C-alpha cells in the first residue's frame, strides 16, 4: 500500500508539473503563433514524407514555366492554384516540389522586378537552418522567453524575403483603410496610366461593367501592387478632369458666340 501511495503521489506531482509546463507553453505559443503557423505550413508542404522535394533548386526553364503558369492562372481564373501547379510540375516537368518552393520563385521574381535586392542562396540556406533549429526546440518546449526575442529577429529578417506576398503593399493599404486611412490614388507611372485607360476603354466597348478584380490581376502581372480602390480613384479622377475641361470649353464657346452676336448687332 505504501509503495502504491508513493507512486500515486509521484504521478500526481508529474501531472502538476506537466500542467504548469503546459500553461507556460500556452503563453509561449501566443507570443510565437506566427512562427508556429509558418513552421506547420513548412512541415506540411516541404518536409512531406515520400516526396523527394527539390527545396527550390529549379533550373531557369523551370522558373520560366512556373511564372508563365501563374500568369495564366491570374488571367483566366483570377487566383493562383498552387496545388494544381504542383501537380503540373511533377507531371509535365518531372520535378517534385512543394507549394512553398513555387511561391518562393514567384515572390522572388516580384522582388527582383520591383527593384528590391534578392537574397543570396547562402543567406537563405543559413536562415532556414537557424529557423528550423529554433522551430524544433520550440516544438520540444525546451526554449526560454529570452531566446524568443533572438529568433524573432531571425524570423522577420528571413520572412521579409520568403513571405513577401504577406507584406504586399496592397494588403497594407487595405488594412489601413479599415482604420480610416485613404491611399494615394496617383501611385502609377505614365505607362501604367495608359495601360489602365486602354484596358478600361476596351472593356467598356465590349462589355459595359468594369471588372476591377481582373484589372488588378493584370496589374499584378505587370508587377504593380495596387488595390481596386486605387484603380477606381485613378479612373474616376481622370473622368472628372475630362468633364471639367469639356464644361470649360463649352462655356468658352458660349462666350465667343455671345460676343460675335453682340458685334453683329
From TrEMBL:
Report which superkingdom the organism of origin falls in.
Eukaryota
Protein name (database record): 16912_t:CDS:1
- Source organism (scientific name): Funneliformis mosseae (Endomycorrhizal fungus)
